[in-house]
Design goal:
With about 300 residues, the protein is α/β, with parallel strands linked by helices. The protein folds into 2 domains: about 210 residues, Rossmann fold; about 80 residues, Alpha-Beta Plaits. About 35% of the residues lie in helices and about 30% in strands. The strands form 3 sheets. A 6-stranded mixed β-sheet has the order 5-6-7-3-8-9, with helices on both faces. Bound molecules: adenosine-5'-triphosphate. The site of adenosine-5'-triphosphate has 12 residues, from strand 2 and helix 1. Keywords: ATP-binding, Nucleotide-binding, Transport.
């Protein structure tokens, strides 16, 4: 398990990471979501033992020193622009990583490369952006580290390659003790793979948690009420996160107890009352707006 307590990092006067605290449970796929400059890369680099924090603490499996060799060998850090030797092929990089990560599974890497039509002997520099991404994801998965930290993991992947990668992630998680921390500025990249998501904004954590679970309490209702209905009582109802009126057609997004919300709506004798499913994105937006954030500044 990774425990982060009050982690802070400044670059001169810029506070890149500000008093961040969170826990990343073992066996989870944890998403770090935030706009450009939110502090995701800085946080990942500190966790990977590449950058020193100004204050605060990181504990990896209880170990205090995240720069120690014991911690480093448990972690594969995949930056958004990974380094490879000039003219190196996947095979050359596999040989290199094998020295760093003795558990690396060569056969699995070769099999994955073949499944993705990547020539393991061709120089990586001749690969497209998406192919390079696939190559490094294979290297990362096959290194058999306990932790994988990825920056902008699916950037440049076409939808089919992204789906294949998501499935490879899931398979690895099922087959061994594996925890993945993924940073992205796109909710869509994270929503179908990450159970837990933390949103970073200006270096701080705005909110974190299991949004799929929380989404079960957030509902979207569409209704039409008679003219005499008391709409103000609904607009000001404590469970109403969002109230949108378009002529007589009203859309509400609500938190709290769904039964109580429905009762309050029914008390106004609706001419029409329907419940529609909510995407994870809408759940986020409603929660963030409910907490007083301007969502357009926090998510892209
Ligand atoms: N080496 C550095 N020197 C000075 N400032 C830096 C450095 N690295 C990051 N910063 C600043 O720290 C803040 C956080 O940057 P960071 O790269 O962590 O954000 P990010 O969320 O990963 O952004 P992106 O999505 O664009 O990659 C930004 O204001 C950035 O300008």
């Amino acid at each position: 398990m990774i425990t982060i307590s009050n982690l802070t990092k400044y670059f001169d006067e810029i506070c890149a990471v500000n008093q961040v605290s969170m826990e990343i449970p073992d066996g989870s796929m944890f998403g770090l979501l935030g706009t450009n400059g939110a502090g995701k890369t800085t946080l990942l680099r500190m966790l990977a033992g590449i950058l020193e924090a100004d204050s605060g603490e990181i504990r990896i499996d209880g170990e205090e020193d995240s720069f120690s060799p014991q911690c480093r060998e448990k972690i594969f850090y995949l930056p958004d622009d990974p380094y490879y030797f000039p003219n190196a092929s996947i095979q050359v990089m596999l040989d290199f990583y094998k020295k760093q990560y003795p558990e690396l599974e060569m056969d699995a890497a070769v099999y994955m490369a073949q499944s993705l039509n990547l020539d393991q002997n061709r120089p990586i520099r001749t690969f497209s952006k998406g192919m390079k991404r696939q190559a490094f994801l294979i290297l990362a998965l096959c290194s058999q580290t306990k932790y994988l930290f990825c920056d902008e993991v699916f950037d440049g992947l076409d939808p089919i390659a992204a789906e294949i990668m998501k499935n490879l992630f899931r398979q690895e998680m099922k087959s061994r003790d594996f925890t993945i921390l993924v940073a992205s500025h796109k909710l869509r990249d994270l929503e179908d793979i990450c159970g837990n998501i933390a949103i970073l904004h200006k270096g701080g954590v705005v909110t974190a948690g299991d949004f799929k679970n929380r989404a079960e309490h957030v509902r979207k209702f569409q209704c039409v009420f008679p003219t005499e209905a008391d709409l103000d009582s609904l607009r000001n109802h404590p469970a109403v996160l969002r109230f949108h009126e378009d002529a007589r057609f009203i859309t509400l997004i609500t938190g709290g107890n769904p039964g109580e919300v429905r009762k309050a709506l029914e008390e106004q004798n609706p001419i029409f009352l329907g419940e529609v499913p909510l995407s994870l994105e809408e759940t986020f937006i409603a929660e963030m707006e409910g907490a007083g954030y301007d969502i357009r500044k926090v998510l892209q």
